[in-house]
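Proteins fold reproducibly. Look at a sample protein:
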Amino acid sequence: MLGLATLGFALNFWAWALLSPLGVHFKAVLHLSSFQQALLVAVPVIVGSLGRIPVGALTDRFGGRIMFPLISFATIVPVLFIGEWGYRSYGALLVGGFFLGLGGTTFAVGVPFVNAWFPPKRRGFALGVFGAGMGGTAISALTTVKLMNARDIHAPFLLTAAVLAAFGILAAIVLRDAPDRVRPSEPLARRLRAAARLRVTWELSALYAVAFGGYVAFGVYLPTYLKSAYGLTQQDAANRMAGFVLLAVLARPIGGWLSDRIDPSRVLALAFGVVACSALLQASTPTLAPTGTIAFFAMALALGAASGAVFALVARRAPASMVGSVTGVVGAAGGLGGFVPPLVMGSVYSRYGSYAGGLAALAVVAAGCLLFCVVQSRANAVRPAAERA
């Protein structure tokens, strides 16, 4: 079940990230500004983020067996729309990208689905493995431009639609919910309000907005950044983005595994410290080999580990019947965290011809998260002693 959920997450994320590798192509063909290009690749992110709130709550109610194939089949529609008609105009691309965001909501399906199959001591690692499905963005980065160059603009979209259809059929036949999963008895709106009243929901939302949001932001905007800042070709930039994504994917289960063994707040503190240092270093736009490459790869590892650690905390601290609802809110915050930075980066570069301001802002935010996690870690160290007393 974990393998199927991870596969479904990866394939839907592949669809979710289809526009990012083609951002440079659409900018040239449709004569877009830097801000328009940034908006184009960011639109699926915000829809996939906000959509996680109701999808997570619906998963609590109906289970992943129904929601996984449902979301996969629904995502085929915008994929085919963009591939057949939407690519011709900027307005149509924005509409298609809006509905393409459905693919990003599968995260809120998979977390409660996987959580129900594993005991508490193994959930951090299991959710980290599931989270590795975000590597679907790497599939998009490695294949989309190559397929377009080898065939035509339709090819990557037709292939993705076929793969989603195959998974939807497989999931409908094979996928099963955990027999002992906790089913909520309250209506959806009441459960969402209850999740919003939990302090843990907002604490983890803030951390995930930086951790996963940073990953998403660079995952969709890195090709544009590398082309503008270093003059790389479209394919070279896409390949380097794939390397960034793969490192983050590999680090996510490690972050979850570490969080099963030590205080997740410590894992998060270390990760955000690395992000702050790497972003500050990259703000000076150093030479790409080796300094810039090291900075981005270190950032990828740290963001991936932090993303895994956050959902280890969700599994620990959220009530069992509300994991989907809390996941939806936290996941939405992460996606929204990825929506804002590309727009900021595009605006900063359009005005100043440099990305330094955007990267410096990331360093400051990561440092703030580091401070919060250090305080939380100290509080967690005191709490068990108080409970024993």
